[in-house]
Model the fold of this input.
Amino acid sequence: MLRALKVGLIIERGNRKNLVALVAVVMIVFGFMFYIKAQAVGNQLVEKKGDYYSAQAILSKFQIKDASETGDGSDLYKNLTKQKSKIALQIAALTMDRKSMYYETSFQLAELRQEAFELEGYENIAELLPSKVQNSMDYLYFKWMIDEGKDTISDLFQYVPFLLFFFMHVGAGWYIFISFHTSSILLDDFEHSSIIKGFPVRFDHYILSKCMITFLSIVTSILLIFICAIPLWIINGLGNPLEPVGIYVGNATLISTIQYIAMSVGYMLLISIFVMLLSIILNVLLKNMYLTLFVHFILFFLPMIFPSLISLIPYNPFNFMNFNDILRGLPVDLVKPVDITMNLGLVIICISIILMLFVIKTFFSTGKINRA
Done:
């Protein structure tokens, strides 16, 4: 096995694809930084002004009525009017740099939205407001901030908050990145069979060594994300690694920022193994990089293009490849809601990996698949 690993390292040493992957990671990380700056992401004042205009747009759907307690407006209209007032208070609190007031007002806004879910006519405007799951996360977050007496707001240009933002949005892109990275993992072996025939190693050991080397390259890519963000630490500080983040695990709950980052890295590594093994099988069956990528993309994008497939086949492992959406509880908000979590996804992905390992080991070691 060590001999196979040594042979694989010799072959992969001159593979430019690994260098291209690392350069791509660097560009993506700095691209995120540019996006945050250009779009004012994390600027609460800008975001709340957008929420205020959205609230005005929602109220414009109603006929103008008296929103006072004794007025003739509907309960939903009165609730939405109160929400608009709370958003205005949020803007005022941010403008005056009164962070504690901002958290209290945000908590009250989350309470109003919880009440609105049960009011008649809410389904007509549901798409314009945060979902029940998202609002539950907001409720827990602001309650925690008030209970802890916090009076600061995270700066996305600090090290830990930036990493949190990155790992909260990397889910879909990670599958695509690994698909490209592994789409030709065995094709050189098929095109130039002399590469491995001249080495005294078993083919299945050689395949395992290829997996180990590719996995090492993937781990390096993840480490590079943390390294590229270090300038933010030097310039703007570390940030708070214990600040809570809302996730969905059957119900809305809070975990620390550092836990979310660690959980994301774990999911990314597991998904990488899944994609790598699937690429090996597709390479063997299709012997074409483009066909391998095509199948990857079809399997990955189908649940996104046709969300009803998630409800129809909830245990499809590709439902869990974009782990950020699952952690946000998006499947619960589908037209046909399905209560799936990343805990379930973890089990399904692990079972899929074991099955693919069995297929690769069985067929590759017995020579049932033509390898050249």
